[in-house]
Every structure is written in C-alpha cells, then in structure tokens.
Amino acid sequence: IVLAEATLQRFGDFAHISQLGGIEIETVEDRAMLSRLGVSNVQNDTMSGGEETRAKIAAAFSQQVHGILADEPTSHLDLNGIDLLIG
MF terms per GO, please (predicted)? Predict the structure, then answer.
C-alpha cells in the first residue's frame, strides 16, 4: 500500500490528538463525521477519553479509505459510543 506522505502525517497526528492541541476540521466531511459520532461541539481541551477516541475514529473514517486497522477501538467508549461505532 502506498500512501502520500501528507496522509501518513495526518494518520500519525490522529494518535496524538490531545498532545497536539486537538483536531483540525478540514472539510465538510470531517464536520459531518464528528457530528455523527457526537463530538462536533466538544472543545478540544475538555474532551473525555471516549470523546477523544470518537474524534480519532471520525478522523479515520473521513479519510475515505477501503479499510481501517484499529487496536481496541472501543476500549474507551461507553455503550452509546460503541453503538455509534458498530451500528
């Protein structure tokens, strides 16, 4: 699989959202995905662990890739967050 360097950098940034000062909403698709996962109105500096996980998932989904490899993506989610992710 060959990915553009900018895409790889953005993927790497997702893993460190809280350390980088939050997420950047770059497109309408990003905003829609954040809204779908219930974190569009959350301030970056007040995100809970579950909200941060949902933001990372939204960022990954907004890439429009064919697949996503995730290590325990539901580990910090409550039941509602798990339903949003799996449902």
Answer: ATP binding
Task: With CA atoms as reference, report the closest residue to 13 among 60, 48, 65.
Answer: 60
> Residue 10 carries which side chain, given as an amino acid letter?
R
- Residue 46, C-beta contacts closer than 8 angstroms, at least 6 positions apart: none
**70 closest CA partner among 80, 82, 79:** 82
Query: What's the CA gap between 13 and 76, in Å, rounded?
Result: 19
Contact 61, 68 (CB under 8 A): yes
State pTM to two decimals: 0.52
